[in-house]
Specification:
By secondary structure, the chain is an alpha/beta fold. The chain folds into two domains: about 80 residues, Orthogonal Bundle (Helicase, Ruva Protein, domain 3), CATH 1.10.8; about 200 residues, Vaccinia Virus protein VP39 (Rossmann fold, 3-Layer(aba) Sandwich). It contains eleven helices and nine strands. The strands form two sheets. A seven-stranded mixed β-sheet has the order 5-4-3-6-7-9-8, sandwiched between helices. A two-stranded antiparallel sheet has the order 1-2. Helix 7 runs parallel beside helix 8 and helix 10 runs parallel beside helix 11. Bound molecules: S-adenosylmethionine. The site of S-adenosylmethionine has 24 residues, from helix 8 and strand 4.
């Protein structure tokens, strides 16, 4: 779909024509070429996808056709759609994303479900101004922490990230979701900025991809920041360091939820058991696809 080719067409192209060309251009780069082409065309035309289906014979203006063509080229190079549209859906809400943050994954949603259920079980209806303290380490876009704040009005969330650029995105998302008064973000290494403080709930989805497994370009993952992916030789470097301090970060009875990839769960669970020899419970949680996805640790009560 080169500029040269499109300039040879005397009549302006129709929705159906550019869609067919876009699908063809994306066939190699994407497993969901049709959906991707529809999303990008709908975005270029500022319409929704059902509109495209009903208006296949509508003509595009040259500006619209060019905008769409540029998007198709970027997508064909492997760039994830979420970065192109600066938006990703997570737990029923839209989050701003850019190349400084990981694109939130649906696999992380069950961790949020677990976190929300735990906090709700802690809500005391007799207390008017109850605050439940939540820490999100490696907060990135704020997908976990802001979703938790949006679901549980008693939650006060602190998000830590080593990346100032990621924290800027999390701050925007907290505002967008109207939870900014209950979310604070601080730059630092793992638990260092909140040392000597305790929380009802700590969540972390730290980088856990083994260094050697980080996909090279043009894999979509290669567009994501290495800082959000690289977990060291076996993927567990950051969790090892976090677990040195994690027991001090939890109130008695508090909950820690740590996300990683299914193949790492047994090793992560073993590390957690070593760090929390007196935990009330240590168990594994599954994502919506039924895969083991997070370790759940409940600190014991005195
Ligand atoms: C896998 S991403 C998770 C982002 C977000 N929590 C989510 O679930 O979508 C990991 C995040 O940890 C951050 N990070 C990496 N090393 C860190 C460190 N030493 N201390 C704090 N954050 C770190 C990265 O910048 C990145 O935003």
């Amino acid at each position: 779909m080169s500029k040269h080719a499109s300039s040879q067409v005397s009549k302006p192209p129709t929705v159906a024509q550019v869609l067919a060309r876009g699908i063809f251009a994306l066939a190699k780069a994407s497993d969901s070429a049709r959906t991707d082409a529809q999303i990008l065309l709908a975005h270029s035309l500022k319409k929704d996808r059902p509109w495209l289906v009903a208006h296949g014979e509508s003509f595009l203006t040259p500006g619209q056709a060019e905008r769409y063509e540029r998007l198709i080229e970027r997508r064909a190079s492997g760039m994830p759609i979420a970065y192109m549209l600066a938006s990703a859906g997570f737990f029923g809400r839209e989050f701003i994303v850019n190349e400084h943050v990981l694109i939130p994954r649906p696999e992380s949603e069950s961790l949020v479900t677990e976190a929300v259920a735990f906090l709700r079980s802690r809500v005391d209806p007799m207390r008017k101004a109850q605050i439940l303290r939540v820490l999100d380490i490696g907060v990135g876009s704020g997908a976990l922490g802001c979703s938790i704040a949006a679901e549980v009005p008693q939650a006060a969330v602190e998000g830590v990230d080593i990346s100032a650029e990621a924290l800027a995105v999390a701050t925007q998302n907290a505002r967008r979701l109207h939870v900014h008064r209950r979310c604070t973000f601080v730059q630092g290494d793992l638990g260092a900025p909140v040392a000597h403080r305790s929380f009802d709930l700590v969540v972390a989805n730290l980088p856990y991809v083994p260094t050697a497994d980080i996909a090279p370009a043009p894999d979509p993952v290669s567009f994501e920041p290495r800082l959000a992916l690289d977990g060291g030789p076996d993927g567990l470097d950051l969790y090892r360091r976090l677990l040195e301090v994690a027991p001090t970060l939890l109130y008695p009875g508090g909950l820690l939820l740590l996300e990683a990839a299914p193949p790492l769960m047994a090793a992560l669970e073993a590390l957690v058991k070593g760090a929390f020899p007196d935990a009330a419970t240590v168990s594994l949680g599954r994502d919506l696809g039924g895969q083991e996805r997070f370790v759940r640790v409940q600190a014991s009560l005195p």
